RNA sequence: GGAGCGGUAGUUAAGUUGGUUAUAACGCCGGCCUGUCACGCCGGAGGCCGCGGGUUCAAGUCCCGUCCGCUCCGCCA
């Protein structure tokens, strides 16, 4: 232990001192952010996680401290004893402690630092590889410290709110039984059971339902989940959910409780007052108007379906798509904004669209009288054109953007174009918090190619009562008692009311063509449990990382996770994953294919 | 599985139709400086141009392969 610390205790953080503290003797600790040596006085900016304080080393005040300060360099870790003095009129407006400075009497160097590979300040554009390799230095940057501090406030507030609402925090296993379907699992070999594997839990889904069966009524957990899928900015192989399940509730009760959580978080963490209830929108409306199941309502541009007129317009390309089971969707860009759409922006959209597997995008400028200025205008019948104008509510000066494709592709692509040009034209209101509940999604999804049916969420999601009769005859038309919470175009949470009646569950399995045998093998323990008086129940899970990203306004998920992984799932700081030794593998009864490395 | 972008001093970037000694800023090192706060001034050091092959009299630059990172589609709730 340092002799300094045995005789001194830190009195203030580096962000705490104000004019009223002038005259006090203080003890500060932190890191040297910068030093400015004027020969006589030496100025040092001392940084800790709370802020920055200017230190003054003046030989007339302490010759000893001034001499010691001469060798200080960036990122040395130091402690000081000094006297707070007002800076009078010479205030530094840029920092919270700018009214004062601390004249140092005693300097203790806890440790020196090599020159860091990049500057420890915000907005320094350093490549990600380096930032991740020296993560502990990147984490010293004020912005990341601010993000992680806010993330801590989010989890603390969540625990307080849910605790107050009667929820119990209960842990569930990470090492679980492998279940096929859904996300790919990470596997863990069992040394004690040669040839057998655990899976790392994709989510605590089944366990939280069992806790409802067990009578715990209200459960939550801030829990790590693991999915071995390809990664994205907003997707890490391990991520954190705020996982919740409630018994004896309807959608309304559950959603209201969750809205209260959001309101509390925004109030206590951001100081923003949300208006409740939050908006509801059906899945069907979202797909129709926005092309996605997570509309960004900060942008007012909307899509419309013009398949009907396009299918008999005389324009072969559109007609063929419609006759082949595809759709034609149209995005109207109002005249005032359309003027700002340059030729090159529109050309760029074609390339953008191609990345979605779309062959092309068509543009038409609406002229006086409703005629179109477009390469295909003369192929398009007047009648069909007028009908498209009517559906799109187009007026002269507007630009119409068309995508004709299979439904899923057309929606995905034009929905993305909507946000792409919305951003370019400044039509996304960046200062808004646009929440909405997405409701009534389909219970099942039909694969475009194989025509196979699969659970859209998981096989325990309830169908809507009014749709139950369609389960056997037309399962693809059944809508679910499921809901997603969407914020600014990001799905921040999703859940459902679960099936708790064995008869209904059997029909759902039948619709999914899951045999009795498979049911037993995959979910036998849950089906058994449901024989013993399961309560009606439902739940939701929020993506904590995504919530934190939005609340901190971080551009990258990496910026709200202390130790994130790269797009290939590696940790550049610890250099993992790595091959392991033959001995370790033997112990686990695991063999690596001969052409891959073993240590 | 697929598409795109990137990799040049410690860092961020520039580097022309291939051409002589690969530039700049910041950082770093030394010196000077009584008030700076992106301190200033003078001087200095610093390069496997991601890696491997090819074309060429000549490659940072062109071609092929490969590795790493990022963004997106597929995948994933």
Provide an overview of this structure:
The protein is of the alpha+beta class and 599 residues long. Strands 6-10-11-23-22-21-18-12 form an 8-stranded mixed β-sheet, sandwiched between helices. The chain has a 5-stranded mixed beta barrel with strand order 1-2-3-5-4. Strands 13-14-17-15-16 form a 5-stranded antiparallel β-sheet. A hairpin with a 5-residue loop joins strand 15 and strand 16. The radius of gyration is 30 Å and the shape is globular. It binds one RNA strand of 77 nucleotides through strand 1, strand 2, helix 3, helix 12 and strand 22.
Termini, distance in Å?
A: 39 Å
Please, how many helices? 18
Q: What is the typical, i.e. mean, pLDDT?
A: 92
Helical content (DSSP H or I, runs of 4+): 25-40%
Which sequence of strands runs across the widest sheet?
A: 6-10-11-23-22-21-18-12
Structural class: alpha+beta
Gyration radius, to the nearest Å? 30 Å
Q: Largest beta sheet, briefly? A: 8 strands, mixed
Assess the beta-strand content as a share of residues.
Answer: 15-25%
> Which stretches are low in confidence, meaning pLDDT under 50 for 5 or more residues running?
none
Strand elements, count: 23
The general outline is: globular
């Amino acid at each position: 232990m340092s002799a300094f610390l045995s005789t001194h205790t830190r009195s203030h953080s580096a962000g705490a001192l104000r004019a009223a503290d002038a005259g006090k003797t203080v003890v500060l600790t932190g890191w040297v952010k910068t030093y400015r040596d004027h020969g006589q006085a030496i100025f040092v900016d001392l940084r800790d996680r709370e802020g920055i304080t200017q230190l003054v080393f003046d030989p007339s005040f302490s010759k000893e401290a001034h001499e010691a300060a001469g060798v200080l360099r960036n990122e040395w870790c130091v402690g000081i004893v000094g006297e707070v003095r007002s800076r009078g009129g010479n205030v530094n407006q840029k920092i919270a402690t700018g009214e004062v400075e601390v004249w140092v009497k005693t300097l203790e160097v806890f440790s020196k630092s090599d020159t860091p590979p990049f500057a420890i300040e915000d907005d320094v554009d350093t490549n990600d590889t380096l930032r991740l390799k020296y993560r502990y230095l990147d984490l010293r940057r004020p912005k990341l410290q601010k993000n992680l501090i806010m993330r801590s406030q989010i989890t603390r507030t969540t625990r307080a709110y849910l605790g107050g609402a009667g929820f119990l925090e209960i842990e569930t296993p990470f090492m679980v039984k492998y279940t096929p379907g859904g996300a790919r699992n990470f596997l863990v070999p069992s040394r004690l059971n040669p040839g057998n594997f655990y899976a790392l839990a994709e989510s605590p889904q089944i366990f939280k339902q069992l806790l409802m069966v067990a009578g715990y009524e209200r459960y939550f957990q801030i829990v790590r989940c693991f999915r071995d899928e390809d990664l994205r900015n907003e997707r890490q192989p391990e991520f954190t959910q705020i996982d919740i399940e409630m018994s004896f509730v309807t959608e309304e009760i559950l959603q209201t409780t969750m809205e209260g959580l959001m309101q509390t978080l925004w109030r206590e963490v951001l100081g923003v007052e949300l208006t409740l209830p939050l908006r509801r929108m059906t899945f069907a409306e979202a797909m129709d108007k926005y092309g996605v199941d997570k509309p960004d309502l900060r942008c007012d541009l909307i899509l419309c379906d013009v398949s009907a007129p396009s299918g008999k317009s005389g324009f072969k390309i559109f007609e063929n798509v419609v006759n082949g089971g595809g759709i034609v969707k149209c995005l109207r860009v109002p005249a005032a904004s359309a003027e700002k759409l340059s030729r090159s922006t529109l050309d760029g959209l074609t390339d953008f669209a191609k990345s979605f597997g779309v062959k092309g995008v068509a543009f038409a400028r609406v002229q006086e009288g409703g005629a179109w200025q477009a390469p295909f205008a003369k192929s398009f019948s007047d009648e069909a054109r007028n009908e498209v104008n009517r559906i799109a509510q187009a007026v002269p000066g507007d630009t119409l953007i068309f995508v004709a494709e299979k439904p899923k592709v057309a929606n995905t692509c034009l929905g993305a174009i909507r946000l792409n040009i919305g951003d370019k034209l400044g039509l996304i209101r960046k200062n808004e918090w646009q929440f909405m509940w997405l409701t009534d999604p389909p219970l099942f999804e039909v694969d475009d190619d194989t025509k196979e049916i699969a659970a859209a969420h998981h096989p325990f999601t309830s169908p809507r009562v009014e749709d139950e009769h369609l389960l056997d005859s037309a399962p693809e038309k059944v809508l679910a008692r499921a809901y997603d919470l969407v914020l600014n175009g990001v799905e921040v949470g999703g859940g459902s009311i679960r099936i708790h009646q064995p008869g209904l569950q059997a029909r759902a399995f039948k619709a999914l063509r899951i045999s009795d045998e498979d049911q037993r093998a995959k979910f036998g323990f849950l089906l058994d449990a449901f024989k013993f008086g399961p309560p009606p129940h439902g739940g939701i899970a929020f993506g904590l990382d995504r919530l934190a990203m939005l609340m901190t306004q971080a551009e990258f998920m990496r910026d709200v996770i202390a130790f994130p992984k790269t797009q290939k799932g590696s940790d550049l700081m610890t250099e993992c994953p790595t091959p392991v030794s033959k001995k370790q593998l033997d112990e686990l009864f695991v063999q690596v294919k001969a052409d891959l490395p073993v240590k």
